[in-house]
Amino acid sequence: MKKGTNTVVTDHNGQNKYSSTAFRIPFGAIAAVSGGISYYYYFFPSSNLVHLDQINEDSESKAALNPDKWIKFKLQDTARVSHNTQLFRFSFDPAAKLGLDVASCLLTRAPIGQDAEGQPKYVIRPYTPISDPDSKGYFDLLIKVYPEGKMSQHFASLKPGDVVEVKGPIEKLRYSPNMKKHIGMIAGGTGITPMLQVIEAILKNPDDKTQVSLIYGNVSPDDILLKQKLDILATSHPNLKVFYTVDNPSKNWRGGSGYISKDMVVKGLPGPSDDTLILVCGPPGMMKHLSGDKAKDRSQGELTGLLKDVGYTEQMVYKF
User: Fold this and answer.
1) Does the annotation flag 238 for ligand binding?
2) Are 64 and 133 in contact (CB under 8 A)?
3) Band of pLDDT at residue 116, cut at 50, 70 and 90
4) Are the C-beta atoms of residues 142 and 225 closer than 8 Å to each other?
5) Beta-carbon count within 10 A of 248 CB
6) Backbone angles phi, psi at 83, to 5 degrees
7) 127 is in an annotated binding site
8) Residue 126 annotated as binding?
9) Where are the transmembrane segments (predicted)?
10) Is 144 annotated as a binding residue?
11) With contact defined as beta carbons under 8 Å apart, do 131 and 140 qualify?
12) pLDDT for residue 21
């Protein structure tokens, strides 16, 4: 690994922007096992991300995000996680934290031309970082690239050194340790991202005794994102149980088969109780099947679907 130079540059707003060629994470080398379907994200050497000869003394107390202002973050590197999903690592001041609470997301925007008055038009999408909120100097986004997705296609076109405008955080569910005895989770596809944020907050806190049960649905075994990481966490933490189900199982598949069913929910999640919280995040069809989607104003909306049929109430379910 070659050590390089480091610079602090100032943008047109007078803000310090940090760049480094000191350490290069070999994303591509780490990204693939078993044909590219699993990802050794768990083993990233975060201490080697960046190095500065000088940093601001005030950086320790600063948050990189601003809820009222779009901030430009530089893409450090990318890695392919599956045939249609990529990991994007963005860097900032290595002495600062992102400023993200659990569970929160951030907003990203990209220009898509101009309006009739010549003003720039943007596409805006929310994403949940999968990196530890306490990490300094970087954050990671796991993004599924859709053929017609304006924002995901924009991300796919980025090269290291390019920037993305970000604003936030946007708080979703305010998590506090031991707020419930048992948290059940149902995720589909990239809906795993807010679940992982909550899971890691629980597991890294030795005083948090919350039991976590996750049902994770995907189209095929090759589509399961971060499976290696989830398996390692479940193996090393007895309070985390993970069950996978896929629509199109392979010949040697040992998990569940088919859409998430009533039987899977009853057997795999905690039963309805005041000490239970069920978190749900996935594509629209899955949400409709399990819980109903959010209301048009993006409030939680009415609880419908399979979870209501099993006996959960609106107070026991949170839709990301």
Assistant:
1) no
2) no
3) confident
4) yes
5) 13
6) -65, -20
7) yes
8) yes
9) 21-42
10) yes
11) yes
12) 35
Q: Which two tokens stand for residue 113?
A: 């031309």
Q: Return the residue matching tokens 């890695």.
A: 79
Does 151 appear as a known binding residue?
A: yes
142 is an annotated ligand-binding site residue: yes
Give the single-character DSSP code of 137. S
How does DSSP classify residue 136?
A: B
Enumerate the β-bridge partners of residue 239.
none
The beta strands (E) that lie in the chain are given as 6-10, 16-20, 71-82, 85-91, 104-114, 120-127, 138-144, 163-171, 182-188, 211-218, 240-246, 256-257, 276-281, 317-319
Confirm or deny that 1 is annotated as ligand binding: no
pLDDT in tens, 256-295: 999 999 999 999 999 999 999 999 999 999 999 999 999 9
CB atoms within 10 A of CB 296: 7
Count Cα atoms within 13 angstroms, Cβ side, for 159.
Answer: 0
Helix and strand numbers, DSSP H then E, in the chain: 7, 14
pLDDT number for residue 62: 85
Give the HSE-up count for residue 81: Cα atoms under 13 Å, Cβ half-sphere.
27
What is the mean predicted confidence (pLDDT) over 72-98?
95
Helix, coil or strand: residue 28: helix
Residue 225 has pLDDT above 60, yes or no: yes
Angstrom distance (rounded) from CA 68 to CA 66: 5
Residue (of 83, 7, 13, 114) closest to 52 by Cα position = 7
Residue 264, annotated ligand binder?
no
C-alpha dihedral (204, 205, 208, 210), degrees to nearest 10? -10
CA distance 291 to 285: 10
Per-residue pLDDT, averaged over 304-319, amounts to: 98
- 221 annotated as belonging to a binding site for a ligand: no
